[in-house]
């Protein structure tokens, strides 16, 4: 990623969106709206002084609300371009309040509260559509309790918990504990106010909550008993009929890494069918069971409830033993389906692309990178669920085909 940002012949237009598209192969005209960052990218050195001093804290979307970020922020250190952005929804100055701390501490004088959106027009020979995907919203499956039960999370949230650069620095801290620790800090302030106001009833209620949270944080800090539920929203006629392809290996990988981080971890993987079809995937699955103690349970989870200590209780049918079982866990990780991004319908309409029944970009049956428009190619999860190796291979091929159009004077070559 850093190499891309530094390459002299690659111009990265981040924080931008296409507003108009016209033309034909060899002569496409694209209008791009670059959103205002309220930070001068040519001046910003990404020193971080502005974020350090900013007084406004909001939930960090990149870490799924498991920690906080400032109103001026970067999603993560390796992001390109390496420039900070002011959140106009939460910045006190941009919402009509008084602050200006970031402008005062910025030695590069990069803060510009008056910055406006700008428009760029490009003339290009070929286009590659690589829009990625969105995770299926698991709140649609109410029986799993996602968004309601604190210790039921998505596979991407688990990825952030396992990351050394994540909200817990790689420690498997339960979300109920993370939120509990934040609540304890609030309670300390509320208790002081109640004591000053001499409100006995409120003080008693606050101290009771404080006592329970302190006990919960101490007893249940680390998640050691994990459950991974496959096919959440995929292979399901209520939502997506297709298989999301990468979820099985993703869950196995996360379970193995969790064991490496915490040797006492025990992981249960609930599945309909484990589809380990890539090179070395089956061996990886077997190694997970033999070396990392993964336990594979063939069965569909019917419901997830919660006990008094916020532990998820999974009810499922074990189809091999032919019985209904309940299992109390520390944390449940949902393998959410890979869905087409929400904006793909509008983008496809603008570019004149055909989509399939699942709103992925439709490709030629014999040329899997060619779309319905000559000169426009696609790769990765824009055309359907793919894992990283497949996406990288397709990206290389799509880049070669796009370059071929340029080298042949704007003619799409069918092979």
TrEMBL record:
Family matches, as PROSITE patterns: 4FE4S_FER_1 (PS00198), 4FE4S_FER_2 (PS51379)
4Fe-4S ferredoxin-type domain sequence ranges: 35-65, 82-116
The cofactors named for this UniProt entry are: FAD
Q: What's one GO MF term for it?
A: oxidoreductase activity
Coiled-coil-forming residues are 177-204
- Keywords in alphabetical order: 4Fe-4S, Coiled coil, FAD, Flavoprotein, Iron, Iron-sulfur, Metal-binding, Oxidoreductase
Q: Which InterPro entries match?
A: 4Fe4S_Fe-S-bd (IPR017896), 4Fe4S_Fe_S_CS (IPR017900), FAD/NAD-bd_sf (IPR036188), HdrA-like (IPR039650)
A Pfam entry, by short name: Fer4
> What parts of the sequence cross the membrane?
none
Q: Which family, according to the similarity comment?
A: Belongs to the HdrA family.
Q: What is this protein called?
A: CoB--CoM heterodisulfide reductase iron-sulfur subunit A family protein
């Amino acid at each position: 990623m850093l190499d891309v940002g530094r390459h002299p012949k690659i111009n990265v237009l981040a924080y931008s969106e296409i507003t108009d598209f016209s033309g034909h192969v060899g002569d496409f005209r694209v209008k791009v709206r670059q959103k205002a960052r309220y930070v001068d990218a040519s001046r910003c050195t990404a020193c971080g002084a502005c974020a350090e001093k900013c007084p406004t804290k909001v939930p960090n979307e990149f870490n799924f609300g498991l920690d906080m970020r400032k109103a001026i922020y970067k999603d993560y250190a390796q992001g390109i371009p390496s420039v900070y952005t002011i959140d106009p929804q939460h910045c006190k100055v941009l919402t009509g309040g008084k602050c200006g701390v970031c402008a005062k501490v910025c030695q590069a004088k990069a803060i510009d509260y008056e910055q406006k959106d700008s428009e760029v027009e490009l003339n290009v020979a070929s286009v590659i559509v690589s829009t990625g995907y969105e995770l299926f919203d698991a709140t649609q499956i109410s029986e799993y309790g996602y968004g309601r039960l604190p210790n039921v999370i998505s596979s991407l949230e688990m990825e952030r918990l396992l990351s050394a650069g994540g909200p817990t620095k790689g420690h498997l801290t339960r979300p109920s504990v993370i939120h509990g620790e934040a609540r304890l800090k609030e309670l300390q302030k509320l208790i002081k106010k109640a004591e000053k106001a001499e409100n006995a009833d409120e003080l008693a209620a606050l101290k009771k909550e404080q006592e329970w949270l302190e006990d919960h944080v101490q007893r249940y800090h680390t998640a050691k008993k994990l459950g991974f539920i496959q096919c959440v929203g995929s292979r399901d006629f209520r939502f997506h009929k297709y298989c999301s392809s990468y979820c099985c290996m993703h869950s196995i990988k996360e379970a193995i890494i969790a064991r490496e981080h915490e040797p006492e971890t025990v992981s249960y993987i609930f599945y309909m069918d484990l589809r380990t079809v890539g090179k070395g995937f089956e061996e990886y699955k077997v190694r997970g069971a033999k070396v990392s103690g993964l336990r594979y349970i063939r069965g569909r989870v019917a419901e997830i409830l919660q006990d008094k200590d916020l532990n998820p209780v999974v009810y499922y049918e074990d189809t091999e033993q032919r019985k209904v079982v309940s299992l109390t866990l520390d944390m449940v990780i949902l393998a959410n389906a890979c869905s087409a991004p929400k904006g793909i319908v509008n983008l496809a309409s603008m570019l004149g692309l055909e989509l399939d029944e699942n709103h992925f970009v439709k490709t030629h049956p014999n040329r899997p990178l060619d779309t319905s428009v000559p000169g426009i190619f696609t790769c990765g999860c824009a055309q359907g669920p793919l894992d990283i190796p497949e996406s990288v291979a397709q990206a290389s091929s799509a880049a070669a085909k796009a370059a071929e159009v340029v080298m042949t004077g704007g003619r799409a070559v069918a092979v």
